[in-house]
Amino acid sequence: MKLSADKKAWLVALKQEDIDKALLEDAFAKHYDKKAKKIVPAKYNWSDELSLAKGECHNTENIARTNAGLFIFNKFIVENLLEHIIPGGYWNEPIDKKVLGKFESYINTAIEDDELTVDAYGEYQDRLQWLLSIHAMVCGSFTPKTSTPNKKVLALRDKLYK
Protein backbone atom coordinates (compact mmCIF):
# COMPACT_ATOMS: atom_id res chain seq x y z
CA MET A 1 0.00 0.00 0.00
CA LYS A 2 1.34 3.43 -0.91
CA LEU A 3 1.71 5.91 1.94
CA SER A 4 -0.48 8.99 1.87
CA ALA A 5 1.27 12.35 1.63
CA ASP A 6 0.64 13.23 5.28
CA LYS A 7 1.90 9.88 6.55
CA LYS A 8 4.97 10.17 4.35
CA ALA A 9 5.58 13.70 5.66
CA TRP A 10 5.52 12.43 9.27
CA LEU A 11 7.89 9.59 8.44
CA VAL A 12 10.34 11.78 6.51
CA ALA A 13 10.34 14.37 9.32
CA LEU A 14 11.54 11.80 11.88
CA LYS A 15 14.89 12.50 13.41
CA GLN A 16 17.20 9.63 14.21
CA GLU A 17 17.18 10.47 17.92
CA ASP A 18 13.35 10.33 17.98
CA ILE A 19 13.26 6.65 17.06
CA ASP A 20 12.61 4.51 20.09
CA LYS A 21 10.48 1.52 21.00
CA ALA A 22 7.49 3.64 22.05
CA LEU A 23 7.46 5.53 18.73
CA LEU A 24 7.78 2.34 16.70
CA GLU A 25 5.08 0.55 18.69
CA ASP A 26 2.75 3.52 18.36
CA ALA A 27 3.33 3.82 14.61
CA PHE A 28 3.82 0.22 13.46
CA ALA A 29 2.09 -2.08 15.94
CA LYS A 30 -1.47 -2.63 17.02
CA HIS A 31 -1.36 -1.72 20.71
CA TYR A 32 -3.46 -1.02 23.76
CA ASP A 33 -4.02 2.64 24.62
CA LYS A 34 -4.27 2.78 28.42
CA LYS A 35 -5.89 6.24 28.45
CA ALA A 36 -8.56 5.40 25.89
CA LYS A 37 -8.81 1.82 27.20
CA LYS A 38 -8.98 0.32 23.74
CA ILE A 39 -6.90 -1.39 21.09
CA VAL A 40 -5.47 1.08 18.60
CA PRO A 41 -4.65 -0.19 15.10
CA ALA A 42 -1.23 0.39 13.62
CA LYS A 43 -0.91 3.67 11.73
CA TYR A 44 1.72 2.29 9.39
CA ASN A 45 2.74 -1.05 7.98
CA TRP A 46 6.44 -1.87 7.57
CA SER A 47 5.74 -2.71 3.93
CA ASP A 48 3.94 0.57 3.12
CA GLU A 49 5.54 1.89 -0.06
CA LEU A 50 6.88 5.37 -0.61
CA SER A 51 9.19 7.19 -2.95
CA LEU A 52 11.87 9.59 -1.79
CA ALA A 53 12.95 12.78 -3.46
CA LYS A 54 16.53 14.00 -3.20
CA GLY A 55 17.20 15.10 0.37
CA GLU A 56 14.18 13.45 2.02
CA CYS A 57 16.53 11.01 3.66
CA HIS A 58 20.27 11.19 4.22
CA ASN A 59 22.50 11.26 1.20
CA THR A 60 19.77 10.21 -1.23
CA GLU A 61 19.06 10.91 -4.83
CA ASN A 62 15.56 10.16 -6.04
CA ILE A 63 14.45 6.70 -4.93
CA ALA A 64 11.43 5.57 -6.89
CA ARG A 65 10.38 2.80 -4.53
CA THR A 66 11.22 1.86 -0.97
CA ASN A 67 9.14 0.98 2.08
CA ALA A 68 8.59 2.28 5.60
CA GLY A 69 10.65 -0.52 7.18
CA LEU A 70 13.68 0.17 5.00
CA PHE A 71 13.25 3.88 5.63
CA ILE A 72 13.36 3.31 9.42
CA PHE A 73 16.36 0.96 8.99
CA ASN A 74 18.20 3.64 7.02
CA LYS A 75 17.19 6.45 9.36
CA PHE A 76 18.19 4.54 12.49
CA ILE A 77 21.10 2.37 11.33
CA VAL A 78 22.68 4.01 8.29
CA GLU A 79 22.18 7.76 8.69
CA ASN A 80 25.12 9.63 10.24
CA LEU A 81 26.93 6.36 10.86
CA LEU A 82 27.33 4.23 7.74
CA GLU A 83 26.03 6.33 4.87
CA HIS A 84 29.58 7.09 3.68
CA ILE A 85 30.32 3.38 3.14
CA ILE A 86 26.99 2.15 1.75
CA PRO A 87 26.77 2.42 -2.07
CA GLY A 88 24.34 5.23 -2.83
CA GLY A 89 24.10 6.03 0.87
CA TYR A 90 20.67 4.38 1.24
CA TRP A 91 20.17 0.64 1.68
CA ASN A 92 17.14 -0.36 -0.39
CA GLU A 93 17.13 -4.16 -0.33
CA PRO A 94 14.82 -6.25 1.84
CA ILE A 95 16.90 -7.44 4.75
CA ASP A 96 17.27 -11.16 5.21
CA LYS A 97 20.24 -13.24 6.31
CA LYS A 98 21.90 -13.16 2.87
CA VAL A 99 21.36 -9.42 2.37
CA LEU A 100 22.53 -8.62 5.90
CA GLY A 101 25.74 -10.51 5.07
CA LYS A 102 26.16 -8.35 1.96
CA PHE A 103 25.48 -5.21 4.03
CA GLU A 104 28.04 -6.26 6.62
CA SER A 105 30.64 -6.99 3.92
CA TYR A 106 30.64 -3.24 3.18
CA ILE A 107 31.16 -2.60 6.88
CA ASN A 108 34.01 -5.13 7.12
CA THR A 109 35.74 -3.58 4.11
CA ALA A 110 35.34 -0.11 5.66
CA ILE A 111 36.91 -1.33 8.91
CA GLU A 112 39.82 -2.90 7.02
CA ASP A 113 40.32 0.34 5.04
CA ASP A 114 40.11 2.50 8.21
CA GLU A 115 36.94 4.19 6.93
CA LEU A 116 34.94 3.06 9.97
CA THR A 117 36.13 3.43 13.54
CA VAL A 118 35.76 0.78 16.22
CA ASP A 119 33.43 3.14 18.11
CA ALA A 120 31.23 3.60 15.03
CA TYR A 121 31.13 -0.18 14.53
CA GLY A 122 30.11 -0.60 18.18
CA GLU A 123 27.35 1.97 17.71
CA TYR A 124 26.16 0.09 14.61
CA GLN A 125 26.04 -3.20 16.55
CA ASP A 126 24.14 -1.58 19.43
CA ARG A 127 21.58 -0.04 17.09
CA LEU A 128 21.18 -3.20 15.02
CA GLN A 129 20.69 -5.41 18.07
CA TRP A 130 18.15 -2.98 19.51
CA LEU A 131 16.23 -2.82 16.24
CA LEU A 132 16.30 -6.61 15.88
CA SER A 133 15.08 -6.96 19.48
CA ILE A 134 11.71 -5.59 18.38
CA HIS A 135 11.49 -8.03 15.46
CA ALA A 136 8.07 -9.32 16.50
CA MET A 137 6.66 -6.00 15.25
CA VAL A 138 8.53 -6.40 11.99
CA CYS A 139 8.00 -10.02 11.02
CA GLY A 140 5.90 -13.01 11.86
CA SER A 141 8.59 -14.93 13.67
CA PHE A 142 7.94 -17.71 16.14
CA THR A 143 7.24 -15.96 19.44
CA PRO A 144 4.55 -16.59 22.06
CA LYS A 145 2.61 -13.60 20.74
CA THR A 146 2.74 -14.70 17.09
CA SER A 147 2.13 -18.37 17.78
CA THR A 148 -1.01 -17.89 19.88
CA PRO A 149 -4.19 -18.41 17.85
CA ASN A 150 -6.45 -15.42 17.33
CA LYS A 151 -9.61 -15.76 19.45
CA LYS A 152 -11.84 -14.58 16.60
CA VAL A 153 -10.38 -17.23 14.32
CA LEU A 154 -10.94 -19.92 16.95
CA ALA A 155 -14.53 -18.79 17.45
CA LEU A 156 -15.19 -18.87 13.70
CA ARG A 157 -13.53 -22.30 13.46
CA ASP A 158 -15.76 -23.65 16.21
CA LYS A 159 -18.85 -22.13 14.57
CA LEU A 160 -17.94 -23.70 11.22
CA TYR A 161 -17.37 -27.11 12.82
CA LYS A 162 -20.85 -26.99 14.36
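Above is the first protein from milestone M3; the second protein from the same milestone is given next.
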Amino acid sequence: MPVIEVNGFDMYFEERGCGEPLLLLHGGMGIGADWTHVFPEDPAGYRVIVPDLRGHGRSTNPSEPFTFRQCARDVLALLDRLGTSEVKAIGMSLGAKTLLHVATAQPHALDAMVLVSATPRFPEPLRVAAAAFTRDAFERLSDAERATLRSRHVHGDGQIAALYDMTRSFAASHDDIAFTAADLAAITARTLIVHGDRDPLYPVELALEMYRAIPTSALWIVPNAGHGPIFGPLAAPFRAAALDHLRR
Protein backbone atom coordinates (compact mmCIF):
# COMPACT_ATOMS: atom_id res chain seq x y z
CA MET A 1 0.00 0.00 0.00
CA PRO A 2 1.27 3.53 -0.77
CA VAL A 3 3.32 5.61 1.62
CA ILE A 4 4.29 9.08 0.41
CA GLU A 5 6.29 11.88 1.96
CA VAL A 6 4.23 15.01 2.58
CA ASN A 7 5.10 17.99 4.78
CA GLY A 8 8.09 16.23 6.30
CA PHE A 9 6.50 12.92 7.31
CA ASP A 10 5.52 9.60 5.73
CA MET A 11 1.78 9.32 5.18
CA TYR A 12 0.22 5.92 4.64
CA PHE A 13 -2.99 5.85 2.62
CA GLU A 14 -5.16 3.50 0.63
CA GLU A 15 -6.86 4.37 -2.64
CA ARG A 16 -9.50 2.10 -4.10
CA GLY A 17 -12.25 2.09 -6.69
CA CYS A 18 -13.27 4.42 -9.49
CA GLY A 19 -15.50 7.46 -9.73
CA GLU A 20 -15.79 10.64 -7.71
CA PRO A 21 -13.09 10.99 -5.04
CA LEU A 22 -14.35 10.32 -1.51
CA LEU A 23 -12.01 11.12 1.38
CA LEU A 24 -12.50 9.28 4.71
CA LEU A 25 -10.78 10.72 7.80
CA HIS A 26 -10.68 8.66 11.00
CA GLY A 27 -10.96 9.80 14.61
CA GLY A 28 -8.28 10.46 17.21
CA MET A 29 -6.22 7.40 18.22
CA GLY A 30 -7.82 5.69 15.23
CA ILE A 31 -6.61 4.46 11.85
CA GLY A 32 -7.95 4.54 8.33
CA ALA A 33 -8.94 0.88 8.50
CA ASP A 34 -11.55 1.77 11.14
CA TRP A 35 -13.82 2.81 8.27
CA THR A 36 -14.30 -0.86 7.37
CA HIS A 37 -16.56 -1.07 10.46
CA VAL A 38 -18.79 1.55 8.83
CA PHE A 39 -18.35 0.60 5.16
CA PRO A 40 -17.72 -3.18 4.97
CA GLU A 41 -17.62 -2.60 1.21
CA ASP A 42 -16.41 0.61 -0.41
CA PRO A 43 -19.32 2.79 -1.58
CA ALA A 44 -20.03 2.15 -5.25
CA GLY A 45 -19.18 4.89 -7.69
CA TYR A 46 -16.42 6.41 -5.61
CA ARG A 47 -12.65 6.49 -5.69
CA VAL A 48 -12.10 6.08 -1.96
CA ILE A 49 -9.05 7.76 -0.38
CA VAL A 50 -8.34 6.62 3.18
CA PRO A 51 -5.21 7.94 4.95
CA ASP A 52 -3.74 7.27 8.35
CA LEU A 53 -3.48 10.84 9.62
CA ARG A 54 -0.23 12.31 10.96
CA GLY A 55 1.21 10.18 13.77
CA HIS A 56 -1.51 7.54 13.54
CA GLY A 57 -1.32 3.95 12.32
CA ARG A 58 1.35 3.52 9.67
CA SER A 59 1.96 7.27 9.27
CA THR A 60 4.84 8.94 11.07
CA ASN A 61 5.13 12.30 12.82
CA PRO A 62 8.82 13.16 13.31
CA SER A 63 8.05 16.64 14.63
CA GLU A 64 5.67 15.12 17.23
CA PRO A 65 3.51 18.17 18.03
CA PHE A 66 0.10 17.77 16.44
CA THR A 67 -2.37 20.45 15.34
CA PHE A 68 -5.59 20.09 13.40
CA ARG A 69 -4.51 22.99 11.24
CA GLN A 70 -1.36 21.10 10.22
CA CYS A 71 -3.37 17.91 9.74
CA ALA A 72 -5.58 19.79 7.27
CA ARG A 73 -2.49 20.96 5.39
CA ASP A 74 -1.34 17.34 5.23
CA VAL A 75 -4.65 16.24 3.75
CA LEU A 76 -4.55 19.01 1.16
CA ALA A 77 -0.98 18.04 0.26
CA LEU A 78 -2.06 14.41 -0.20
CA LEU A 79 -4.91 15.42 -2.48
CA ASP A 80 -2.55 17.62 -4.47
CA ARG A 81 -0.13 14.73 -4.91
CA LEU A 82 -3.02 12.59 -6.12
CA GLY A 83 -4.06 15.25 -8.61
CA THR A 84 -7.41 15.76 -6.92
CA SER A 85 -8.64 19.34 -6.69
CA GLU A 86 -12.11 18.69 -5.20
CA VAL A 87 -13.48 15.84 -3.10
CA LYS A 88 -16.41 14.71 -1.09
CA ALA A 89 -15.43 13.77 2.45
CA ILE A 90 -16.53 12.16 5.69
CA GLY A 91 -14.67 12.86 8.92
CA MET A 92 -15.18 11.45 12.39
CA SER A 93 -14.18 13.52 15.47
CA LEU A 94 -10.50 14.33 14.84
CA GLY A 95 -11.15 13.81 11.14
CA ALA A 96 -14.21 16.06 11.25
CA LYS A 97 -12.27 18.86 12.94
CA THR A 98 -9.60 18.47 10.28
CA LEU A 99 -12.29 18.90 7.62
CA LEU A 100 -13.45 22.10 9.30
CA HIS A 101 -9.95 23.49 8.79
CA VAL A 102 -9.90 22.32 5.16
CA ALA A 103 -13.36 23.75 4.50
CA THR A 104 -12.52 27.17 5.97
CA ALA A 105 -8.99 27.46 4.56
CA GLN A 106 -9.72 26.19 1.04
CA PRO A 107 -13.50 26.04 0.55
CA HIS A 108 -13.15 25.01 -3.11
CA ALA A 109 -11.46 21.73 -2.08
CA LEU A 110 -14.69 20.25 -0.71
CA ASP A 111 -17.87 19.74 -2.69
CA ALA A 112 -19.78 18.04 0.14
CA MET A 113 -18.87 16.68 3.56
CA VAL A 114 -20.23 14.79 6.53
CA LEU A 115 -19.01 15.90 9.96
CA VAL A 116 -19.43 13.29 12.70
CA SER A 117 -18.96 14.44 16.31
CA ALA A 118 -17.34 17.73 15.34
CA THR A 119 -17.05 20.88 17.46
CA PRO A 120 -16.27 24.53 16.79
CA ARG A 121 -14.24 24.72 20.02
CA PHE A 122 -13.13 22.53 22.92
CA PRO A 123 -15.65 22.63 25.77
CA GLU A 124 -14.81 21.82 29.37
CA PRO A 125 -15.89 18.12 29.27
CA LEU A 126 -13.37 17.48 26.48
CA ARG A 127 -10.61 19.32 28.32
CA VAL A 128 -11.17 17.23 31.45
CA ALA A 129 -11.15 13.97 29.48
CA ALA A 130 -8.07 14.98 27.48
CA ALA A 131 -6.08 15.84 30.59
CA ALA A 132 -6.36 12.20 31.71
CA PHE A 133 -4.30 10.95 28.73
CA THR A 134 -1.00 10.80 30.59
CA ARG A 135 1.80 8.40 29.72
CA ASP A 136 1.16 6.73 33.08
CA ALA A 137 -2.36 6.00 31.85
CA PHE A 138 -0.87 3.97 28.99
CA GLU A 139 1.26 1.99 31.43
CA ARG A 140 -1.84 1.19 33.48
CA LEU A 141 -3.58 -0.43 30.52
CA SER A 142 -3.92 -4.20 30.48
CA ASP A 143 -1.53 -6.25 28.37
CA ALA A 144 -4.35 -6.93 25.92
CA GLU A 145 -5.19 -3.22 25.60
CA ARG A 146 -1.55 -2.30 24.99
CA ALA A 147 -1.25 -5.10 22.43
CA THR A 148 -4.28 -3.76 20.56
CA LEU A 149 -2.78 -0.27 20.41
CA ARG A 150 0.56 -1.66 19.21
CA SER A 151 -1.15 -3.63 16.44
CA ARG A 152 -2.84 -0.46 15.19
CA HIS A 153 0.00 2.04 15.61
CA VAL A 154 2.95 0.14 14.27
CA HIS A 155 5.93 2.42 14.99
CA GLY A 156 6.42 1.38 18.60
CA ASP A 157 5.51 2.65 22.04
CA GLY A 158 7.07 6.03 21.27
CA GLN A 159 4.38 6.60 18.65
CA ILE A 160 1.64 5.64 21.10
CA ALA A 161 3.12 7.92 23.77
CA ALA A 162 3.07 10.78 21.25
CA LEU A 163 -0.60 10.09 20.54
CA TYR A 164 -1.32 10.28 24.28
CA ASP A 165 0.60 13.57 24.36
CA MET A 166 -1.45 14.79 21.39
CA THR A 167 -4.73 14.02 23.12
CA ARG A 168 -3.60 15.54 26.42
CA SER A 169 -2.57 18.74 24.62
CA PHE A 170 -6.20 19.40 23.71
CA ALA A 171 -6.87 20.23 27.37
CA ALA A 172 -4.84 23.44 27.04
CA SER A 173 -5.47 24.23 23.36
CA HIS A 174 -7.42 27.40 22.64
CA ASP A 175 -6.44 28.56 19.14
CA ASP A 176 -6.38 25.41 17.00
CA ILE A 177 -10.08 24.58 17.28
CA ALA A 178 -11.67 28.01 17.65
CA PHE A 179 -14.12 28.49 14.80
CA THR A 180 -16.32 31.57 14.98
CA ALA A 181 -19.68 31.91 13.28
CA ALA A 182 -17.96 34.06 10.65
CA ASP A 183 -15.38 31.33 10.03
CA LEU A 184 -18.07 28.70 9.56
CA ALA A 185 -20.11 30.98 7.32
CA ALA A 186 -17.27 30.84 4.78
CA ILE A 187 -17.84 27.11 4.22
CA THR A 188 -19.32 26.39 0.81
CA ALA A 189 -19.47 22.57 0.99
CA ARG A 190 -22.89 21.00 1.43
CA THR A 191 -22.56 19.76 4.98
CA LEU A 192 -24.30 17.09 7.03
CA ILE A 193 -23.62 17.38 10.76
CA VAL A 194 -24.10 14.11 12.65
CA HIS A 195 -24.07 14.25 16.44
CA GLY A 196 -25.10 11.97 19.30
CA ASP A 197 -27.46 13.58 21.77
CA ARG A 198 -25.58 11.87 24.61
CA ASP A 199 -22.07 12.86 23.47
CA PRO A 200 -20.10 13.19 26.74
CA LEU A 201 -17.37 15.33 25.15
CA TYR A 202 -19.24 17.78 22.92
CA PRO A 203 -22.69 18.91 24.10
CA VAL A 204 -25.33 18.78 21.39
CA GLU A 205 -25.67 22.58 21.53
CA LEU A 206 -22.32 22.83 19.72
CA ALA A 207 -23.71 20.84 16.78
CA LEU A 208 -26.68 23.20 16.64
CA GLU A 209 -24.28 26.15 16.68
CA MET A 210 -22.42 24.78 13.64
CA TYR A 211 -25.70 24.04 11.85
CA ARG A 212 -26.84 27.63 12.29
CA ALA A 213 -23.52 29.03 11.04
CA ILE A 214 -22.70 26.81 8.03
CA PRO A 215 -24.82 28.07 5.11
CA THR A 216 -25.69 24.84 3.29
CA SER A 217 -25.88 22.44 6.21
CA ALA A 218 -28.24 19.82 7.54
CA LEU A 219 -28.31 18.45 11.08
CA TRP A 220 -28.94 14.90 12.25
CA ILE A 221 -29.07 14.45 16.00
CA VAL A 222 -28.84 10.72 16.68
CA PRO A 223 -31.05 9.85 19.67
CA ASN A 224 -29.57 8.01 22.64
CA ALA A 225 -26.14 8.05 21.00
CA GLY A 226 -22.73 9.07 22.31
CA HIS A 227 -19.51 10.19 20.64
CA GLY A 228 -18.97 8.80 17.15
CA PRO A 229 -22.49 7.44 16.54
CA ILE A 230 -21.62 5.52 13.38
CA PHE A 231 -20.51 2.09 14.57
CA GLY A 232 -22.26 -1.17 15.40
CA PRO A 233 -26.04 -1.00 14.90
CA LEU A 234 -25.74 2.68 13.95
CA ALA A 235 -23.50 1.96 10.95
CA ALA A 236 -26.27 1.02 8.51
CA PRO A 237 -28.48 4.10 9.07
CA PHE A 238 -25.38 6.30 8.99
CA ARG A 239 -24.25 4.80 5.66
CA ALA A 240 -27.64 5.46 4.13
CA ALA A 241 -27.86 9.05 5.38
CA ALA A 242 -24.26 9.95 4.59
CA LEU A 243 -24.27 8.56 1.06
CA ASP A 244 -27.66 10.11 0.33
CA HIS A 245 -26.29 13.49 1.42
CA LEU A 246 -23.14 13.14 -0.67
CA ARG A 247 -25.12 12.20 -3.80
CA ARG A 248 -27.49 15.18 -3.66
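Note on the second protein: The chain has one domain: 3-123+175-247.
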